[in-house]
Amino acid sequence: MIAASLMRRRSRILVALLAIVVGATVLSGLVTIYVDVPRQMGAEFRNYGANMIFLPAGGDQPYTTQTVSEALAMIGEERLVGAAPYRYEIMQIHEQPIETAGTDMAGAMRTSPYWYVNGSWPDESGEMLAGREIAELLALSVGDTVTMVYKSEEDTADARGVVESPEMEMTVTGIMESGGSEEGYVYISMEDMVALCGQEGRLDVTELSVSGERDALIRLSEEIAAAQPGIAPRLVKRVTESEATVLTKLQALVLLVTSVVLILTMICVATTMTAVVTERRREIGLRKALGASDKGVAAEFMGEGFILGAAGGLIGVVLGFLFAQAVSMQVFSASITFQLWLVPLTVFASVLVTGLASFWPVKSASKVDAALVLKGE
């Protein structure tokens, strides 16, 4: 009976089904974006630099490569995008004092993807990356070779009165531009820094790019501080706060749009079901005259609504994923994964919305007076 009723009123039913499909598509698509957008947005914000740094806590607690490695192990490979330890020393190039940073080049590439390098990153001993300001100061170009000399306060003169300082021939492989203070440094590998200056294991700061929301990063920094007293983790607020603000506003917008679309879907379904009930008043009256109960009449109409809701929900899941995939590719240039739990959620929400929209029309159908609608028949 329900199937026959739906087929007899295909035009109106298709309108209601279309409204449900649109609502289910928006619900499924926006919920997929809502769930996946923190990961996508986090990946985008990683392009703006590190979101956490490790500083020495001071006191007698050590801050070395060993303690930093132990702290990084607490973060885990699945959350750690990159880590770049830095050690700063004054070197002499062309007899001029130059701020020099020793680092892990692979880690610096991951934590500072916004650096523009004209040339290539150093990947061997004896190679260096020059900031734009230093390159202009010393008239350096890619491929130039310079002598880097380290003069410490402990340097002593030999019997001839000559001070012997460690030095190394360095080749400029790239000129770095960042638009910030980083352009005022020369970057060499940590191995070359140790070879020139000694004191293996010494660090000044470590920059990290960690995947996670602000609250999760705060808890992680507190755990690291408790487990490693020599390390003082700090969040880079210009990155974490901006990410949290954008995510909060975006998620609020997603919820608002989803709510509005579902309300409009309910209105459309309710209007369609009301028109169907009006058209079938004589049919309802005849059935009640033949002994049909109010519950039976209501059950038939609700059955129609539930079938429409389930069908629209299933179609909406597929279209919603395609919608979310298109948005993700256009905005983030990355694909998303299909969430299986969205299938029952979308179907349930569609059936619920359809049921609520059908409640008042069905209630009016059960109140049809057979004597009045059949008068004169």
How would you describe this protein?
The structure is a single chain. This protein is α+β, with helices and mostly antiparallel strands. Strands 2-3-8-5-7-6 form a 6-stranded mixed β-barrel, surrounded by 4 helices. The protein contains 12 helices and 10 strands.
Give the SSE layout.
Elements: H1 2-8, H2 10-46, E1 52-56, H3 65-75, E2 80-93, E3 96-103, H4 105-111, E4 116-119, E5 127-131, H5 132-138, E6 145-149, E7 167-177, E8 186-189, H6 190-197, E9 205-210, H7 214-227, E10 231-235, H8 237-279, H9 281-289, H10 294-331, H11 342-366, H12 370-373
Helix pairs in contact: 1-10, 2-8, 2-10, 2-11, 8-11, 10-11
| CA radius of gyration | 34 Å
Task: Please report which band the strand proportion falls in: under 5%, 5-15%, 15-25%, 25-35%, 35-45% or over 45%.
Answer: 15-25%
The dominant shape is: elongated
Number of domains: 2
Q: Whole-Å distance between the termini?
A: 23 Å
Encode the helix/strand succession as letters.
HHEHEEHEEHEEEHEHEHHHHH
**Mean of the pLDDT scores?**
81
The secondary structure category is alpha+beta
Brief digest:
This protein is α+β, with helices and mostly antiparallel strands and 377 residues long.
Task: Tag the structure with descriptive keywords.
377 residues, 2 domains, single chain, elongated, 6-stranded mixed β-barrel, alpha+beta, 12 helices
